[in-house]
Design a protein that fits this description.
The structure holds two protein chains of two kinds. Chain A is an alpha+beta fold. Chain A has one domain: Cytochrome p450. Chain A is 48% helix and 12% strand. The longest helix of chain A has 31 residues. Chain A starts with 16 loop residues before the first helix and ends with a strand. In chain A, 46% of the residues are buried. The model of chain A has no long low-confidence stretch (mean pLDDT 92). By secondary structure, chain B is α+β, with helices and mostly antiparallel strands. Chain B has one domain. Chain B is 33% helix and 21% strand. Chain B is built from two helices and three strands. In chain B, a hairpin with a 5-residue loop joins β1 and β2. The chains are: A alpha+beta, B alpha+beta. The interface between A and B is medium-sized, with 31 and 24 residues. The structure holds protoporphyrin IX containing FE (HEM) and zinc ion. Protoporphyrin IX containing FE (HEM) binds next to α14 and α18 of chain A. The site of zinc ion (ZN) has 6 residues of chain B, from α1.
Chain lengths: 447, 66
């Protein structure tokens, strides 16, 4: 017996926020231990009504992502959706409570009501991309992609640069600056402007969108006061979104902001149904929040690796590579889930119809079969294969182009103004079993 | 003006994630445009016309290859 006995590494408690809050090193060691010993693993989270399959390998996740006919998105997309409904019912709206009261529901049907319930903000007609399947999914997605078309994102480059410069000009060298609420605010400022939120309401909108990020993770361990706080903010957010959309519809939707584009778009030959349109507005405003999280991880990683930051100053054409390396190294979504539509074999295990399957993106991003030195952060890493941080396949992130464009421009501008920065205190990370982000990142910038 | 050359020490390629999930790559600008148009024509004939060279190059990322 040596002290390096590998059995000492405990496998992940995938449903537990505390697992993700620990230091990355032991967390990734636990993930790797399971990936190497049991790449397709049936896990039963304590307190859950049934187990789920954990897929740790990059290759297996690609397979699932490219077969939406075998792996449905209808019945939940995050691990918490599979919680015992009794433990999360207080976080759900009235219509979902009633739906969950029916007898003889399958586990999959229960997951759908929980997942849709938490996204719906009380509106039973709410319909999001993330819970739909082809062919309807494709029709919904094409409405969104018309609004976020590449030519629009491309035309935004000048405006993104202006906003970035405006925010960066307010950053003072040599004094402690919170990155999250300064430079990190740029994408949210851009998205509220693009969406068409009136200037006087933008700040409040951004605050509310932050709360929405928490609401999309259902967590049985959240205390009642926190649940009530989040619910209040989310309701206000939903009400503002409704108002904005109603106003655009009433005025004929002629503007070129995203809310107007959605108001005048068609879905299957008719105006976009309300439940769908509102999910698009949520998406636009939330886009600022996810991008804020990504920027914060880039800024932190570059503070921790000054040699790599200097390389970017000398070679700004590497910034795009650095953004993707940060996405690989610090995924915002730990994982994503699907439900098998029939029996399927993966890695020698039979996944049965109705089983819940979790693709651990954080694991695929460190898969030794795909990445050399997976635990090293390296902005010059070669990307012959893509990481899983935007998912893969028909549900892969439709905002990836916008997020990458924003981030690349912002870091090109920031590095040009401040070639040097360091941590002025410990970063404040927040995490749920589905998502992670940063609440604060104290930095000191140098010219 | 198509070139795969970056600064001497890095070799780049162009990578484009098609929204359908497929990842396309090309060593040069011309090659990624060609590969993408072929993919569009085969898999998304209804969209092929909407994408011109400049859109493809904007969507593509220039990343390091091994
Ligand atoms: C900045 C970093 C971002 C990251 C890391 C990210 C990550 C992801 C991931 C992993 C998925 C796939 C979920 C799954 O298949 O299980 C996804 C889906 C999605 N993302 Fe993003 N996202 C980001 C930014 C954005 C932005 C800027 C937008 C909108 C402008 C956006 C809108 C969406 C939507 C609507 C979906 C659902 C797509 C579908 O189901 O077809 N995201 N995102
Ligand atoms: Zn495609």
């Amino acid at each position: 017996m040596t002290t390096a006995d590998a059995t000492a590494v405990q496998w992940p408690a995938w449903e537990d926020a505390a697992f993700y809050a620990q230091d990355p090193e032991p967390m990734y060691a636990a993930i790797a231990a399971q990936r190497n010993a049991a790449p397709v693993y049936w896990y039963e989270p304590p307190g859950y009504p049934t187990g789920l399959w954990i897929l740790s390998k990059w290759e297996d996740q690609r397979f699932v992502g490219s077969h939406p006919e075998l792996f449905s998105s209808r019945y939940g997309f995050a691990i918490g959706d599979a919680s015992d409904p009794a433990t999360v019912i207080g976080q759900l709206p009235e219509w979902a409570k009633q739906a969950l009261g029916q007898e003889n529901l399958t586990h999959a049907e229960r997951r759908r009501f929980v997942a849709k319930g938490k996204l719906s903000m009380g509106d039973p007609d709410f319909e999001g991309l993330i819970l739909s399947d082809p062919p309807r999914h494709g029709d919904i997605r094409s409405v969104l992609m018309k609004a976020l078309r590449p030519s629009l994102v491309r035309s935004l480059r000048t405006r993104i640069t202006e906003i970035a410069d405006e925010f960066i000009a307010r950053v003072e060298p040599e004094v402690e600056t919170d990155f999250v609420t300064s430079v990190g605010q740029i994408p949210a400022a851009l998205m509220t402007e693009l969406t068409g939120v009136p200037p006087e309401m933008r700040e409040r909108f951004i605050e509310l969108a932050s709360a929405q990020m928490l609401a999309i993770t259902i967590d049985p361990n959240r205390d009642a006061a926190e649940v009530a706080r989040i619910q209040g903010l989310v309701e206000e957010f939903h009400a503002y979104c409704n108002e904005l959309l109603a106003e655009r519809r009433a005025s004929g939707g002629e503007g070129d902001d995203l809310a107007s584009i959605i108001a005048r778009s068609e879905f299957q030959g008719a105006p976009v149904p309300h439940g769908l349109a509102i999910s698009f507005i949520h998406t636009f405003v939330n886009a600022g929040e996810t991008t804020r999280a990504l920027l914060s991880f880039v800024a932190m990683a570059l503070a921790q690796h000054p040699d790599q930051r200097r390389l970017l100053v000398e070679h700004p054409e590497l910034v795009a590579n650095a953004i993707d390396e940060t996405l690989r190294y610090y995924p915002l979504n730990w994982s994503g889930c699907r439900t098998a539509t029939q029996d399927v074999e993966i890695g020698g295990q039979t996944i049965h119809k109705g089983d819940y399957v979790m693709m651990v993106y954080a694991s695929a991003n460190r898969d030794e079969d795909v990445w050399e030195r997976p635990n090293e952060f390296d902005v010059t890493r070669s990307f012959d294969k893509d990481h899983q941080s935007f998912g893969y396949g028909e549900h892969s992130c439709p905002g990836a182009l916008l997020a990458r464009t924003d981030s690349t421009i912002i870091f090109e501008r920031l590095l040009a103004r401040f070639p040097d920065w360091d941590l002025a205190g410990p970063p404040g990370r927040w995490g749920t079993p589905f998502l992670q982000g940063m609440s604060s990142l104290p930095l000191r910038f140098h010219t | 003006m198509s070139t795969a050359d970056g600064p001497k020490e890095f070799e780049f390629h162009w990578v484009l994630d098609c929204p359908c999930g497929e990842t396309l790559t090309g060593l040069t600008e011309d090659e990624i445009v060609e590969v993408s148009l072929a993919h569009l024509g085969a898999k998304h004939p209804d969209m092929a016309e909407a994408y011109e060279r400049e859109h493809i190059l904007f969507m593509a990322r220039r990343l390091i290859r091994s």
